[in-house]
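User: Let's play a game. I give you a shape written as tokens, and you guess the letters that built it. Ready? Here's round one.
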């Protein structure tokens, strides 16, 4: 079979205006970026607000492994499947980050015959949204140091500046730096660092904002640091929020593209699923809900991170009510959870599959705690044997849920029609009665314990007195009602990435807490989490190049 980029390059793409026509979007409401990408007019979108909402389907997954799970591929395949059975469906996805594209992933636009296109554009600069977010973030960084240099009217304590700089690239050398070296004319030296752009609070704000007015308010609410008396200094205090909003004005408009089968897709925003909430923008999701019958969206990493944050943060903030959840699993990944090394996953091993399936069953149990119906999509690989498939179907059935084999990677929509029909049936049954896991007014420390014990199945959390005092201070300052955003390894229910399966009874250590006042949540850092990743020993960038025909090669 051809590679992903070869399949994408052969796609018979339709002009983006024709894709818009399928959603009854007039030409004047689309601003094209070439022939196959466009941004959607916020004014026109606002006028659609009285329309009835579509059904909202969340696609999540088991904990990620090197064997691969395929959330994006399944999201695209399900969207195509729904359209193939006569439903008006739209898929809403995150924008890929350049860092992972040139690091481990090599691309993030689906795979096989379930992709969004133009694949190269989406994986690289796309419409410039990430560049705008990077620029807005670093404008604030520059204005902070400039404010201190020119008299420091806000009396910012340089030792307590919390706002770093960002770059949309994996670069471990920039995690910790010293700025303003070189003498008096360059300012006051202080320690700082870089995060990757997707970890920026501005990215989280961007994806949770409802419109430009809301965006500017949230940007103004960013805490950039503290004075010597430990009182917070906000972005608006140094007058940066207006200019930052100007830089983000066009970026906030959702991006419309298409799948290989010429079905509409919104790709907009892309916060980390560790340090932020890991979902595409509220603006794009709401656009889809007003323009289609079904909206398929995904959340980053496994359901313990992405789905939990989608449900407890995004749905809470945007007043969204999902109708069903699809959990993606692969037999290969479940066998890895059962203790089989990657180089032996192609061999039949029903016992390992059964051992590793506890990871999937744990995620099913967790999603049901939100009063949502669950269906499992088995992302099929050619190495999967009939015995393994039958065993997994039986395991899921015994848990009270249903699993459906999906072959969208090789067959496109033909491989997901059964899943699509099951999703329609679930939505028609009105079985969903969505409830967040915890109440707004629960104390912050109790919210943390709730996620740790209910989702991670930990026995308890550990946090020193300094962290407890910080949470108490934030509650007194009026932040008690904020949701919490847990930042931990994506590979395990615990903080140990090597502890696969479904561990329980462990302790979740709270290393640090951060107030993202603009985004509207408390970040709780558990264990060793990096907000600026490094490149692997053999980065994907080594294989990405332009060939003699002037075509990009190496993206996958």
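Assistant: Ready! My guess for every position:
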């Amino acid at each position: 079979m051809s590679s992903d980029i070869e399949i994408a390059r052969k796609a018979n793409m339709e002009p983006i205006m024709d894709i818009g026509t399928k959603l009854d979007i007039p030409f004047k409401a689309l601003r094209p970026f070439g022939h196959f990408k466009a941004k959607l007019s916020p004014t026109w979108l606002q006028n659609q607000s009285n329309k009835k909402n579509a059904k909202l389907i969340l696609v999540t997954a088991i904990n990620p492994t090197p064997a691969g799970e395929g959330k994006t591929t399944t999201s695209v395949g399900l969207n195509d499947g729904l359209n193939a059975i006569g439903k008006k469906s739209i898929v809403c996805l995150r924008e890929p980050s350049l860092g992972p594209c040139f690091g481990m992933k090599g691309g993030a636009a689906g795979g096989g015959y379930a992709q969004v296109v133009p694949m190269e554009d989406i994986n690289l600069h796309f419409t410039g949204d990430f560049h705008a977010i990077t620029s807005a973030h670093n404008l604030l960084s520059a204005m902070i140091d400039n404010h201190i240099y020119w008299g420091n009217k806000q009396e910012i304590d340089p030792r307590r500046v919390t706002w770093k700089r960002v770059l949309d690239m994996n670069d471990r050398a920039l995690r910790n730096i010293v700025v303003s070296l070189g003498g008096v004319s360059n300012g006051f030296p202080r320690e700082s660092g870089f995060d990757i752009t997707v970890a920026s609070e501005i990215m989280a704000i961007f994806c949770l904002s409802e419109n430009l007015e809301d965006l500017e308010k949230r940007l103004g609410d960013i805490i950039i640091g503290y004075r010597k008396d430990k009182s917070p200094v906000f972005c608006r205090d140094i007058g940066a929020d207006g200019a930052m909003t100007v830089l983000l004005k066009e970026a906030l408009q959702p991006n419309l593209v298409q799948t290989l089968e010429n079905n509409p897709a919104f790709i907009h925003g892309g916060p980390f699923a560790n340090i932020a909430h890991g979902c595409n923008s509220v603006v794009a999701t709401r656009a889809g809900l007003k323009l289609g019958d079904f909206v398929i969206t995904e959340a980053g990493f496994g359901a313990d991170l992405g789905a939990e944050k989608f449900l407890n943060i995004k749905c809470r903030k945007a007043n969204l009510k999902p109708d069903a959840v699809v959990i993606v699993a692969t037999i290969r990944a479940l066998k890895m959870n059962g203790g089989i090394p990657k180089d032996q996953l192609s061999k039949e091993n029903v016992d390992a599959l059964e051992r590793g399936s506890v990871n999937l069953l744990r995620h099913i149990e967790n999603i049901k705690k939100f009063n949502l119906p669950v269906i499992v999509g088995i992302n099929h690989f050619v190495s999967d044997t009939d015995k393994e498939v039958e065993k997994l179907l039986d395991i899921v059935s015994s848990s009270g849920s249903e699993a459906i084999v999906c072959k969208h990677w090789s067959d496109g929509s033909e491989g997901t029609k059964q899943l699509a029909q099951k999703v329609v049936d679930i939505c028609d049954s009105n079985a969903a009665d969505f409830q967040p896991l915890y109440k707004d007014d629960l104390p912050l420390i109790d919210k943390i314990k709730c996620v740790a014990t209910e989702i991670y199945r930990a026995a308890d959390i550990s946090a020193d007195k300094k962290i407890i005092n910080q949470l108490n201070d934030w509650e007194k300052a009026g932040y008690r009602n904020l949701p919490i955003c847990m930042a931990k390894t994506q590979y395990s229910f615990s903080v140990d990435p090597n502890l696969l399966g479904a561990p329980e009874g462990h302790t979740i250590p709270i290393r640090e807490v951060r107030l993202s006042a603009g985004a509207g949540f408390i970040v709780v850092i558990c264990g060793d989490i990096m907000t600026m990743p490094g490149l692997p020993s053999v980065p994907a960038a080594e294989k990405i190049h332009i060939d003699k025909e002037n075509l990009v090669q190496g993206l996958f």
